[in-house]
């Protein structure tokens, strides 16, 4: 690897997610990276979760239903949408307190591409833990045709910035001593 001698090398922190103070009621975050749902996703999730509804794994059965084909397991859709929101909503959560008002507005099929957004509905200080606040968001997932397929309310406890400890040399999730260290830059 070569470096340009005219530029100083330095460790720069990456995106660490939002802290409690960063949330404002009414803000909407359009989460990056839509995700196409594959048949493999559906089959694996259905098997792992032991969902025995033939609508998810039996093509002949599903073909005779009003949908005419297999549907993606709704709990997979929930897991995927929540996962898509982590980068903006709960990368700094210490716990998820609840998922409420879960609604499946339309079916999801193999090959659909889902997109998710979250709107901040409420926030408050925790009454029992000074290092976190509680944030409630509405998570909405849409397919490639802009059809709303899922909505739910999600309430995580989110760290306050003053209690976070990541640094450019040791971001969240990295063990100490891995990769470029500050002393490597001298």
TrEMBL record:
Region of interest called Disordered, as start-end residue ranges on this chain: 159-186
SUPFAM superfamilies assigned to the protein according to its UniProt record, in alphabetical order: Thioesterase/thiol ester dehydrase-isomerase
Gene3D superfamilies found in the cross-reference section: Hotdog Thioesterase
Protein name (record): MaoC family dehydratase
Organism: Halobium salinum
